[in-house]
Every structure is written in structure tokens, then in C-alpha cells.
From TrEMBL:
Protein source organism: Drosophila yakuba
One of the Pfam families matching this protein, by short name: Ku_PK_bind
Protein name: Ku C-terminal domain-containing protein
Keyword rRNA processing: no
UniProt GO BP: positive regulation of Notch signaling pathway
Record-level GO cellular component terms: nucleus
Length: 358
């Protein structure tokens, strides 16, 4: 159950049932999600008004049963079956959503132990396709109101077996922006308009050239973002957004040139993919609409030009399709995922299997 569903249920149903014996919190292996949801409905979200401590205790007992079943589904059998993997994935997602609402700390402590055991047993498909792609690491401020907005994101949790947190790109930009914001007051006090550097003056006015070349497009893009978007001066919101849009347009233009000005080399395709990934991450933070409109045009041209390696190895595997709830706070987790985007040239969305019951 998601946090939002829990909030809805909490507003409709005042609190929880009375405490019941631990052995009444059984979750079976046949249909664990159904059993779990029934416990939540009958032990945590019923109509009686009782003490908050009872609510918490009933949820904690339900959560303990969920943790036990997830562990058994993943580790108790030699060669975990696909069916058990799907059950564990679905129950883990349900449990995490409720933990974010009711009591995240036991989840946050346990999920690290689960991750370590998954990696120890080299269950890399489960690690990459479930824990990482579905962002089932520790609860934090992005999905739980019980944490402060300046809570440290769990980047380290995902930094194993060649993976990074799916939200790392937008957080990198956010961190740089916050650092710049910390310097704005000092800059406003110590610097008069006549003393602004050329870059700061351009950032404030929005009057700068956004040009990227085929030689070093990613480095040039990052330089433009740092100089004119993450500036150390106070910039009007309208100018700031216009600067983001200007640099994004330059990124789209050079990606198009790298791929379609003649036959692209492997190096050109790598450059295009790296910049596209960076641009998508920033778009997810500053506003994804332009990216989401344009990426369909890029996909269609890639397929028209029969650049199938780029399509399969870059756009599909790197999930460079439309921004969605998996990588942008602009969307709710209940919003539909862009599965159809990837259903070309025999491909499917890399995350389709883990979301096929959503």
C-alpha cells in the first residue's frame, strides 16, 4: 500500500483495532500480499478509535511478519523461483509504502540487512531489477513526512554492484543548487551590480550563448549549468527557468547532431547517451515536459535511421524514455509508467516485469 493510499484510508477510518496475539499476524507464502493487506485492513485501519501506540504496535507486528515472509521467499529455497521473486517484490513494495507512513525506522534498518544478504548470495537480478529500479531502499524525506526535508538521501544504499540510486542525477543538481543558495546572501551583501563577474551578470540577465560542440558536449553542458543556472547570485525565477530551457535546447540540438549528422560513430553514440542521461536527470528536477515531448521525436528518428544498437543498449537499457515517477518528483507514484515508449523493435521497458501488477 502506498503512502497516499494509507493517508486516504487514515482519513476515512479513524484508527486501529485493539492489540491481538502475535500468532494472529500470519502471512502465508501462497498469496502474501493479500494476507498482508488483510492484516492492514483488519488490524491497523479499522473504524475504532484507539491509542496511537496500539496502532503502531499492530503495524509493527504486521511488518515483522512481512519481513519474515519476504526473507523466506527470497532465501529459503535453492534458486529462488520467478514466482517467489515476484511475490517478494510485491510484498516489499507494499510494506515499504506503509512503513513510510506508520513507522519507517525498522524498515530502514532491516532493508540494509536484506540488501547485504542479496548481494552476498549474488542475486543480482533481484538487486538491480527490484531493489534498485523500484527504489526500495531506506525511506527518506522524498517519500516520508516523518523525515526533515534536509534529510540525507540514501545514495550509498544503492551504490553497490555497479548501480547508483535512480534519483542520483536530480539530487546532484539539487545539491549544487542548495550550495549556490547558501552563497547568495553573502554575494548579495559583498557584491554590487557593478562588481558582478561576467558570468554572474549573464546569469542574472539570462543573456548568454548556450552552445555545445560534438567534441565535449557533456562537459560543456555541465559548465553551462554551473555558470548560468547554479549561479552564486540571486536570479529572478523567470530568468532562471529561461536559462534552464535555453541550455536544454542546446542539449537537444547537439544530441540530434551527434546521432543524425551522417552515420554516428560508437564514440558519438556514447557522447549522445551520456548527455541525454544528464539532461533527463536535470529535466526531472527543473521540469520534464519539454524533455518528455522531445524524447518521442528522438526515439522515432533513431528507429527510422535504424540505429538499433543505440535504441536497445542506450535508450532502453539506460531508461532514457519519458521522465516519470521513478525519476522525478513532478509525478506521483500512482501515475502511469511510460511502458509503451519502449515497446519498439522487440523491446520492452526494463522495469515492466517488476511493475506488471501495478
Amino acid at each position: 500500500m502506498s503512502k497516499r493510499k494509507a493517508e486516504g484510508a487514515q482519513s476515512d477510518k479513524m484508527a486501529t483495532a485493539e492489540k491481538v496475539p502475535q500468532n494472529d499476524y500470519t502471512i502465508g507464502l501462497v498469496d502474501p500480499v493479500k494476507d498482508y493487506q488483510k492484516l492492514i485492513e483488519t488490524r491497523v485501519q479499522v473504524d475504532e478509535i484507539v491509542d496511537d501506540d496500539v496502532t503502531k504496535e499492530n503495524f509493527d507486528r504486521t511488518a515483522a511478519s512481512a519481513r519474515d515472509v519476504i526473507w523466506r521467499l527470497i532465501f529459503d529455497e535453492d534458486g529462488t523461483s520467478q514466482s517467489n521473486t515476484e511475490k517478494a517484490s510485491q510484498l516489499l513494495e507494499e510494506y515499504r509504502g506503509d512503513a513510510c507512513f506508520y513507522d519507517p525506522m525498522p524498515y530502514n534498518e532491516w532493508i540494509v540487512k536484506l540488501r547485504d544478504e542479496v548481494l552476498k548470495r549474488e542475486l543480482l537480478d533481484f538487486w538491480r531489477d527490484v531493489l534498485v529500479k523500484k527504489q526500495l531502499g531506506p525511506c527518506w524525506s522524498r517519500d516520508c513526512d516523518l523525515f526533515d526535508s534536509d534529510d540525507t538521501p540514501p545514495l550509498e544504499f544503492y551504490a553497490h554492484a555497479g548501480c547508483t540510486a535512480p534519483f542520483a542525477a536530480s539530487l546532484k543538481v539539487r545539491a549544487a543548487q542548495e550550495q549556490a543558495s547558501q552563497n547568495q546572501d553573502e554575494a548579495a551583501v559583498s557584491t554590487t551590480p557593478g562588481e558582478l563577474s561576467t558570468d554572474d551578470a549573464a546569469a542574472r540577465s539570462g543573456d548568454f550563448e548556450a552552445t555545445l560542440t560534438k567534441e565535449n558536449p557533456l562537459e560543456e553542458y555541465r559548465s553551462l549549468m554551473k555558470r548560468f543556472v547554479l549561479a552564486k547570485v540571486i536570479v529572478p525565477d523567470s530568468v532562471h527557468q529561461a536559462s534552464v530551457n535555453k541550455i536544454a535546447a542546446a542539449a537537444r540540438e547537439i544530441i540530434w547532431k551527434l546521432l543524425f549528422d551522417g552515420t554516428p560513430s560508437a564514440e558519438d553514440q556514447n557522447k549522445a547517451a551520456e548527455l541525454l542521461q544528464e539532461y533527463k536527470g536535470d529535466a526531472g528536477f527543473y521540469g520534464p515536459d519539454d524533455y518528455n515531448d522531445w524524447i518521442f521525436k528522438l526515439r522515432d528518428e533513431v528507429l527510422t535511421k535504424e540505429l538499433l544498437d543505440f535504441w536497445r543498449e542506450k535508450m532502453v537499457k539506460m531508461e532514457l524514455g519519458p521522465s516519470c515517477a521513478r525519476d522525478s518528483d513532478y509525478y506521483d507514484y500512482e501515475d502511469p509508467l511510460p511502458l509503451e515508449f519502449y515497446e519498439k523493435a522487440g523491446c520492452k521497458a526494463p522495469f515492466e516485469a517488476t511493475f506488471n501488477d501495478d
